[in-house]
Batch of 3 targets.
Target 1
Amino acid sequence: MADRDFVNLSAAYNWEQVITSLPSLVELHFQACSLEYTAPLDYDNSTTLKHLYIAHNNFRYKSSISITRWIFQLNNLLYLDLKGNNFVGPIPTISNATKLQHIDLFFNDFNSSIPDWFYLCKDLEFLDLSSNLLSGTISNSVSNLTSLNTLYATSNHLSGKIPKEIANLCQMQWLGLSYNFFKGEISDTFGNMSACFLESLQRLRLQNNSLSGKLSSLEQLWLHANKFTGTLPESFGLLSSLQLLFMKDNMLEGVVTEAHFANLTKLDKFFASGNHLTLNVSPNWNPPFNLTILQIASWSLGAVGSQIPAWLETQKNILNLDLSNTGISGSIPSWV
């Protein structure tokens, strides 16, 4: 490994030739080295480099085009960090670097579309394209990136529809597509999310686009065993096609009212134990749904106090009911 982080190399001109003359070099760090220039390159891809960190430098225009062409021909690269280098021009459309697992191009001035070869990196886990000048669309071929757990492309000029294939990537944890020009119905992309996508996803950012519509076609929502905090949004009540809501074992708190269930006429299974929520509905509430499974262990039953809620009598199809640790007491109603 060669680590030259924070060494002033502003006068270095032939550093790339030095690298290629080291046949056993596997890892190279040039972070914040004030690199500006590079000599003409021969694009030899025979180097054994697997980890390349060239971040926070200040490459001039001609050098930036030359260096990126060289880098993306390195056919053994696994980890690439090029953030904050003032790189300009297009991302090369042809590359031998399809073994990459980590690509960080954050905060440069790349001004091309996303090249097709990105979608051939079947082992890619992390991709950050944020804060560039990228345009065009995200290809449906994103479905090839089955190992991808982080995709950031915020603050670009990307447009078109967000491909629905993204919502089937089972390893996705952080997805950020804010501050672009994406358009179309939000339900076209996220209306039929796979269960594994929902189980994995931790952060989703879509603000400042031109997306429209609603997620009323969503049938299943799996959010369990995460670290969600705060209150449950009343907008859950707008998911009129929702049949299954699995949100147990989080850290949600606050009050859940009739408004949260207003349009959930198709709701069949509701798993929400292991939160700190309070159910506050009227004694005469007649729910719009007819559940087969209801699990709200550890909830407070609000104004109903210590009694088994009367509205449960309307749930004629209940097969699985969990009201443990809700503080209920007293006699068991005759309808149970």
Target 2
Amino acid sequence: MKTPAKETDTTMNSNCSSCSLSSPKLSIYLVAVFALIVVLFEIQSLQTPPSWALMEKIFTNSCLSTSLHVSSQDELKAMASKLSRAVTFLPLKDLRYASTAADGHTWFMSSMHDVREPDKVRYQHFPSEASGGRVLCLKGRDRRDGARNSYALAWPETLPRNATLARGTTFVSYNHYDYDNIWHGLSVLMPFVAWHIRGRCAVGPPARWILYHWGELRTDLAPWVKTLLEATFRGGPLKIEDFGGGDRAVTCFEEAVVMRHNEGGMSNEKIVEVYDLMRCRSRVYCGAKSREVNGSSIGMTVLMRDGPRSFKNASEVIRIFVKECAKVEGCRLMVAYLHNMTFCEQVKLMSLTDVMVSAHGAQLSNMFLMDKNSSVMELFPKGWLELAGVGQYVYRDLAGWSGMMHEGAWRDPVGERCPFPENDQRCMSVVYKNGKIGHNETYFSEWARKVLGEVKLRKSVPVSINRVSGLCGCNY
């Protein structure tokens, strides 16, 4: 009866022998597994990779888990070290897509796909199922050449060597224009508010913002936009990352949200929600007093500019609108230079404005701070209709997105003479872009009379137009 037992012991010893550290079979096994993992990692580098948990399972389910536990842990650490060194960095700005820099995947993080949900903002979220559980890592802080800055994905357990893990949520913005202009800054950062609303505002303010323009790092933001974001996210002063650790330092992020398509993909309803929340929280932040929605008073504000696109005869323009406002009971005309006003002073002014009169320019970005269904009257210098392209319509679009009424535009037929043929595109940059705006008393009077009459009629109809209750709990 003892003979079979001896045979069994011999078999068990044979099995364990096959797992010994000196066994050729083990060496071949480890090399084969490592080669398979590396091949899979490289092939699917920035797509959906095998997870670190799967790699660990490969080892722990093998014979090593029963007979060589300590050795398997050493092997896993060695494997982690190799995977850490194998993290592949790609340029933030992919020059292969320079001709379609803002289209599709864009030349910014060109290998990555956006999450697309019907009618909602397009975004990337790390870590996520789409990233295979990997976090976003960034390297470089070049401000002149985005191709010298780079990105990679890595598992939290195998971050690149000497990488720093930044805790909290990080918002990463790509802007094809700039962050100094309040319209460009507003349009590129409002998608983060949409993402915030998408999660029912359950997540607090981001720990930091990272701003890129063509892959080049930016560390400043128009003060108006900065204060608007502070008011909207209610998180105190914005922290804009400057990567002070040096050009080659690597920072990985516990959670990161990347936006690169502005309002692209969003339905008008979702965009209106964003401006509703920003209006509401800005008014709460600034302590703007609520006024009677259906009252008889009408606020008409003429926004003035210095320099480019200012009025040739500002006093005459003001006189015309004062005259027409005086003909309407309860109308009060206000004149303002917004560059002399703080953000909260602008918020309070807009909360009292039912009709905004302004030359085309970034100051029109304030329109969403008015009550919904308020009116916008826009004026242009000569040459814009013919040569300015689609950019001349951005504030008409903003009016629709924020629930305002764009009451058309007046285009000055008179202006400085261009030294080139009239329809030569050079005329726009040399003369017309910064041209000054004249006036037409007959047209302005009839236009103002019509708009003020419509506003008075709208305000006579009992309706609540400004409440956003239920949207992240903001009420005003």
Target 3
Amino acid sequence: MTILFSRVISRISGTPRKTFYGYPQQCQSLVFSNSCHSSADSNPKGDAVLQEKVDPFSLVADEISLVSKRLRSSAVAKVPELASAAGYFFRDGVEGKRTCSMVLLLMATAMDIDRPESPFNRIGDTLKIELRRRQQLIAEITEMIHVASLIHDDVLDDADTRRGTVSLNFVFGDKLAVLAGDFLLFRALGALASLKNTEAVSLLVTAVENLVTGETMQMAATIEQRCSMEYYMQKTYYKTASLISNSCKAIALLSDQTPGVAKLAFEYGKHLGLAYQFIDDILDFTGTSASLGKGSLSDIRQGIITAPILFAMEEFPQLQAVIKQGFDNPANVETVSLLEFATPCNLKQTGEYAFTFVKFYAMILRTQALEYLWKSQGIQRTRELATKHANLAAEAIDSLPKSSSMDVRKSRQALINLTQILTARNK
């Protein structure tokens, strides 16, 4: 259904199809104006003039409330069951931190760059308000696509929790959950069409298609691909960073920015999304189910190999042998050894015993993998990788054309601060 969605949008846009977040409150109070990067880094430090604390959320809190209200309206459907399912994650208390909306609304202000040749320098307040509304719409579309992808992921993973509550598929069943995700995707389609901007539509089409590609890469990966850092990085971009990076670029294009400025917006979203996922990969090993809002060790239980394990594998090549034994897929574990101990009296029960043995053996293999991880620098190296991409995101913002507007400078500083807030989170 998601592939169909992307194809339909492509026809509307007339362009070819392309293939290709929670954080602790205490982190928001950190002052990053002059220490956005470690002293050892040569990266830019943001706006040195802005000495006061710049809290990213507070700058756009009112707009995020508007976006949240419109998202709840978007989930209204003629069939009550569908409306309840589609609006499940837009309810107060389970709507998440609206990180995507925050990034995009801050980016919209950060893109308010003076360009004499731009028509937006000659328009009145009414049209500027309309531009802002269209940028808000990009935030709403991105949130709908994001939530739809989470719903579909939970069905594929048979997950029972999401955002600290019971997952949609667990409450409504897989069939209605899939339909609710499809419903949100097509509501996003309608909103995209109303933009009447083929470049923005094409970017969001690419993001949706990348989400599907990334999920398929994860599902269909061979053991060699699972153990490849290059494969992991490409999959991570598709699944996590593509949506926010293409949405950031769409925000810039709606503001009539140059291709160079639009590319910087894209780079910010790309590196921020990657950094966010790397921290998520760490927290899957170090966090608790209560803090994460989902089961801890969920990736390794599903056979998903992430950066900490990949780095550990570089230090301990024998870890790859453990993985190849099938800790990620009990069906691959040889159970013939159990039959060697079967006797006539328990032969009828061998099937049940074999299943229990397989699960137990898989648990042992996972434990061995974790032992190698704790002995390695896998967690530390993943954190360093996250920091590297957070710094690259900050560099993209510092590379934007200078502005004398305090609102623009505050928004840019907030975007830089956000790179550190999201990588310092513990849930």
